[in-house]
Design a protein that fits this description.
Layout (H helix, E strand, L loop, with lengths): L1 H23 L5 H27 L8 H26 L5 H29 L8 H26 L3 H20 L3 H24 L15
Helix pairs in contact: 1-4, 1-5, 2-3, 2-4, 3-5, 3-6, 4-5, 5-6, 5-7, 6-7
């Protein structure tokens, strides 16, 4: 049962939520593809291969605390930075719905390629896989985190204020750095959930208090 719940949260939930948003707006499905690519290109094609290469030649990038923090921040930089580029240069129309979909598809790409694909391949090879409910818990709040960080990038573009981009990168880096700071998995996952929820509440509050709320064509659907 736990593995079914895991795949529902990791793969079905982000697609279902995106379909719901599409059903309530006039957004184009290409936004989901763009969001998928904002994770795939900077992480899968660029950052991770660089890290693997450094490891292969004997260079450790996480053996000291400063390096660990830089490693966590680099993930925030490439992911939230890619979201910013998508909102700034790729998407023709920036609405809250687009911001949500970018975050959902970003999380879907991570769940599919980084998390689920190795599990699926292992199962196909006949290996027994046991997935705890904690893994499903983590994927749920990872999705919330991706949405939150994407919305920070969205708001940075909407208001031409890089402080929101920086905040998104720092919050992403903080959430990724927990694995180095906290050794107890229950405390670590609880802290991650708190950061994810706090980030989401913060950016939604900022957007909802925006005096120029009319800029967001579909804001009333979500706030």
């Amino acid at each position: 049962m736990s593995i079914i719940i895991f795949f529902i949260i990791a793969l079905i939930l982000p697609i279902a939520l995106s379909i719901y948003i599409y059903s309530k707006t006039k957004l184009n499905f290409s936004t989901f593809i763009i969001g998928f690519l904002t994770f795939f290109i900077p992480q899968v094609l660029i950052r991770l291969p660089i890290l693997y290469y450094l490891t292969s030649i004997g260079i450790s990038y996480s053996n000291t605390f400063p390096k660990q923090i830089l490693l966590a921040l680099s993930a925030g930089l490439v992911e939230v930075g890619a979201d910013y580029i998508a909102f700034r240069f790729v998407l023709k129309k920036n609405t809250l719905g687009n911001g949500l979909i970018i975050g959902l598809s970003h999380g879907f790409c991570e769940n599919l390629i980084i998390v689920s694909l190795p599990i699926i391949l292992s199962i196909l090879n006949g290996n027994f896989i046991s997935i705890s409910y904690m893994a499903s818990f983590e994927r749920l709040f990872a999705l919330v985190a991706h949405i939150s960080f994407a919305l920070f990038a969205f708001y940075a573009v909407k208001h031409k204020n890089l402080i929101y981009l920086i905040l998104g990168i720092l919050l992403h880096g903080l959430s990724d750095s927990l694995i180095f700071i906290l050794s107890n998995i229950y405390i670590m996952e609880s802290a991650f959930a708190l950061i994810s929820i706090a980030s989401f509440i913060a950016i939604i509050y900022i957007i909802s208090k925006d005096k120029n709320v009319s800029k967001y064509d579909d804001i009333k659907l979500f706030i």
